[in-house]
Amino acid sequence: MKIDKNITLQGNWFETSVTLRLPMKSDFNEWVSLRRNNVNYLKPWEPERNDSYLLEKTYLKRLRGYNKMFRSGKVLPFNVFRSEDMRMIGVCNILNIQRHISQTAEIGYWIGERYAGLNFGKSAVSAVTNFCFDQLSLNRVEAAVMVKNAPSISILRTLGYKKEGISRQKLKINGKWEDHYIFSRIASDTFL
Prior knowledge:
Order of helices and strands: EEHHHEEEHEHEE
Number of strands: 8
Oligomer: single chain
Number of helices: 5
CATH architecture of the domain at 8-141: 3-Layer(aba) Sandwich
Largest sheet: 8 strands, mixed
Strand content: 25-35%
Strand order of the largest sheet: 1-2-3-4-5-6-8-7
Low-confidence stretches: none
CATH class of the domain at 8-141: Alpha Beta
Distance between the termini: 27 Å
Mean pLDDT: 91
């Protein structure tokens, strides 16, 4: 399926509106500011990052990688913006898109601390989930979340994702191998 490079998604959960679009070079300053302001907040949930992660050349290299994976239909990365003022507040990515007999994808997301707990995460994950089913015609969407990440677990449960089990030591987060719950929704799941 060919996806328009100018794709924009809209999400709204209880009057909390977000706009999602593919990352661009011009997003770098806002992205790096958001990342710097959330280093300590995100540290317990993400892999360790070295200082080069926040450099513009690294960001541009990552964009080139995303573009290559986008063209191959494997990844759809989205920056998340608060719709009212188009301030970048996080990221919500569709990863590891599988076609043929699988028709599945994984999602990964984070929202900056200032916007956490205000339904922005639910709005973004809802928009991406709906896009996976309605536009990509996927059968299954999966998310892995650390067992101690209660806010992220709440987002997934609220949006109708079902816990399937645990993936032991799935990712090395903040210097330690962490277990993750696996949550999923399938196209035939009924949801509000």
